Amino acid sequence: MSEVQFLNVHKDFSGVEVLKGINFTVQAGQVACLIGPSGSGKSTLLRCVNHLETTSSGTILVGGRMIGYEVHGDRLIEAHQKDINKRRSRIGMVFQSFNLFGHMTALENVMMGPVKLLKVPKAQAEAEAKELLAKVGLAERTGHYPAQLSGGQQQRVAIARALSMKPDLMLFDEPTSALDPELVGEVLDVMKALARDGMTMIVVTHEMGFAREVADVVAFMDGGVIVEAGDPREVISNPQHERTKAFLSKVL
Amino acid sequence: MTVTERTAVAESRPDFAELASRPVLKRKRPGQLIAMVVVGLFALMGAYILVTNPGFGWPTVAKYLFDVRILNGLLTTIELTVIAMILGFVIGLVVAVMRMSENGLLRGVAGAYIWFFRGTPLLVQMLFWGFAAVLFPTIGIGIPGGPMLVEWNTNDVLPLFVAGILGLGLNEGAYMAEIVRAGLMGVPAGQSEASHAMGFSRMETLRYVVIPQAMKIILPPVGNETISMLKTTSLVIVIGVGDLLYNTQQIYARNLQQIPLLIVASLWYILLTTLLSMVQSRIEKRYSRGNVLQVRKA
Ligand SMILES: Nc1ncnc2c1ncn2[C@@H]1O[C@H](COP(=O)(O)OP(=O)(O)OP(=O)(O)O)[C@@H](O)[C@H]1O
Ligand SMILES: [Mg+2]
What we know:
heterodimer; A: alpha/beta; six-stranded mixed beta sheet; four-stranded antiparallel beta sheet; 9 helices; 37% helix; globular; B: mainly alpha; two-stranded antiparallel sheet; 13 helices; 4% strand; disordered C terminus; binds adenosine-5'-triphosphate; binds magnesium ion
């Protein structure tokens, strides 16, 4: 499992600064929940971790190694695409909109990474994929296409797909926000089991119950900065900052 | 409404219970009948002319329909269609991917390709390839400005058939590029993003994720392009490739039976386009069945 360190991370989109110096550490094996109002930069921060977004300055270390960049003299320079891809393959990402590959069955979605990237023999990859799908409660749905699955089932396949690459770190960007309320629980249950297994997780979420129950640390973001971070019982139940109080009074 | 008016309405109310027991009549549509008569008359006139005007030369049509020169030309037409479409598709794919590249130079080259080949008439391009042998009497591999290492005579390596394929295929590539591009852009961005997040490169993402899904969008217009290409191949007559129309011309140039021979060619063209349309609607039906799949089963 990998520790994640954000060191003074800045990010701007054509001059508009959306991350304004993020300093934050997620210990290996911990679950960190990012909460905060829309537009506060949660997704952007998460996407910087696997370099889906570039940073303008600052560094992110995953497992103590910089990601997306390498040192060049006294400056940082973007790393080789090959190296970035290699690092990404060990970081699972789960999206709000599932993003399962529409032309592949659940099983094929979960097999694809190991077969094409890790060169795992097909039979072995299939056995492992079936095991993963069983783990997320979808042993009966391996032959279904994404369009034939409910949102909750799709998201669980997406989690299995991410796990198929045996990641050291899992990133979740509002994994339950696109789900009907009665389907949220089944996805959160899978995530809880993952947390119990000791997976390092960074979860952007609006599910305060989940944050309170599962997170080791909660960070409240607003306007591109982390306003406060710490023990979930502290941050959610007893926030110190006005902005946190205002936000929580709206979502709780 | 006043009270008296209301009673009047009530009184004029038909007996629905009684009516319900009787079958419903179909309303007569005189317009349909008139249309039938008019169309029928024209069809009759057409048929009468076709049969009685000796200029159509039906016996001649029958005589040449399976003439070996016609069949050879037909084969050439089919070959031109298939090869030009394959060439066009490959070029279209490459140009479309270049057009969406992060590299500005590649984007520019792709844009220029489409700009040129869509901006000039195909007939001109065809003539150009026919005369290319004049423009470059020899082609070879060598050092620019220096000596040639290998050299060929253009007339040997660029037979007219190849010139025809180039004319049709390069032009088709420009149109195909736009079709492919629309298909690639039709695949939601989240698909590529998920693939990149897993560690797939841009090329792997295109190959495994984007192109297979873009095919659904690309295939129907490719069907139209193929049908259109079958007819467009006839332009090769300007450079003397022996396709269906060229061989037809050769025959009527000697026996002067222009109309019957053009009918022969038309019959073959229409047979092939009809067959292609049938194949196309099969394929489209298969894909619309795929779309029923997209409807979420709860
Ligand atoms: N690709 C982009 N180009 C320009 N601006 C962007 C881009 N992506 C995000 N932004 C801007 O950056 C800011 C932070 O966006 P981000 O998506 O990180 O917010 P968020 O906290 O995830 O919000 P939400 O809860 O709505 O998902 C927003 O103001 C957004 O408009
Ligand atoms: Mg977001």
